[in-house]
């Protein structure tokens, strides 16, 4: 049932938000010359996939977890995109094609071995990663792997249609700030 919601909402979002996506892409071209950012992440069953976001950092920034990146690498437009969470919109494509869900554990980088190990212990990789979830609305980021995996486990065990919509609503109204940076 939740996968059906993912398909409906991601498709509808991509169609209705296409003018905004085009505008942000054009601004991104002027900001960094490369508006989209693609990065390999760990998906369901630990299968790698390519996550797509709007670029918020200068090109050639080191590929590490956000909390390990110096804030000086984030562009002014990137700060706006992060604050408004608009940088996440291209992930609707990842949701539509089944690599992600709107709600689930945030996909980690392939080099975040401590987080991967903690998530394996909690059997987190049995579900699709998501754009938002319980950890995100409670400001828990990837800098605390054990805590994050525990919260992800709770979210997976308690996920219902109500909580699916609750997490999305809390994200849209600005609860949680996303990953912190140095």
Describe what you observe in this structure:
This protein has helices at residues 2-16, 18-32, 76-84, 91-96, 113-121, 134-137, 145-158, 161-172; strands at residues 36-42, 48-54, 101-103, 130-132. By secondary structure, it is mainly alpha-helical. The chain has one domain (4-172). The strands form 2 sheets. It has a two-stranded antiparallel sheet with strand order 1-2. Strands 3-4 form a two-stranded parallel sheet. Helix 5 (113-121) packs parallel to helix 7. It is globular, with a radius of gyration of 15 Å. The relative contact order is 0.16. Mean pLDDT is 91; it is low at 178-182.
Structure at a glance:
This protein is mainly alpha-helical and 182 residues long. The chain has eight helices and four strands.
Secondary-structure map with pairings?
Layout: H1 2-16, H2 18-32, E1 36-42, E2 48-54, H3 76-84, H4 91-96, E3 101-103, H5 113-121, E4 130-132, H6 134-137, H7 145-158, H8 161-172
Parallel strand pairs: 3-4
Antiparallel strand pairs: 1-2
Helix pairs in contact: 5-7
Query: Structural class per helix/strand content?
Result: mainly alpha
Terminus-to-terminus distance: 39 Å
Query: How would the global form be characterised?
Result: globular
User: How many helices does DSSP assign?
Assistant: 8
